[in-house]
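Predict the 3D structure for this chain.
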Amino acid sequence: MKMHGAGNDFVVIDQRGLGDIVSPSLAQALGDRHRGVGFDQLCTIDHDPGADAKLVFWNSDGTIAGACGNATRCVARHLMTETGRDRLTLRTERGLLIAEDAGDGLTRVNMGPPQLDWAEVPLAHEVDTLHLPMAGDPAAVGMGNPHCVFFVDNAEAVDLPARGRAAEHDPLFPQRTNVEFVSSLGPDRLRMRVWERGTGITLACGSGICATAVAAARRGLTGREVTVEVDGGTLSVHWREDGVWLTGPTAHVFDGVLSPAFLEEHA
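Done. Predicted structure below.
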């Protein structure tokens, strides 16, 4: 399936009953927007004895992504349509996540509590995660994957490829990092642009939106319930006691079948 959440686009492969299909080589080939299908992340669906499904996320460079909020919401909507249910439990590398029908065609997922200790993010050594020793005074937040959040006067004016790539590979982040540039649009409204590790510029990033909301609340810039405008649309975040809830639209674009020759070439 091809799906997207606010322009954050995914290839979703249903592996239930088929075993592991995706390899780093196949993920890279499918991620090629000219010779494959193209995606920001790839997501596989598997059976899980302790949840409604197990999800694994891949970046377009063939590496594993520990969390993906928009893909989780997209797959949750697909499974809710399939089962007729309005609440599901999904297993990811982040743990068990609850997804719900939020009404009005929206889907929300609890991305779990933020990881705010330096070792959990993870960072290379002990620092204050609210004020990293990097130019631009960013904050670090873990959401199952690492995030580096810069608060700037105008997110539109940021040289996203240059600054995003540099921060992704900063030695402070041993697993590299997603990078967000955020400016304020009001008391509880933010504008965010994102550079995702292993992918580059994307129109939205669910875990990044969650990390941005957490960092803004921790710095006293907003409350715990915010609206975030990204290049692909608008999503909302509510940092509650039980975790960070992400709500927004999803779209199922098409279903497809990969040719045997393509699968064989990139096995």
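The chain has five helices and 17 strands.
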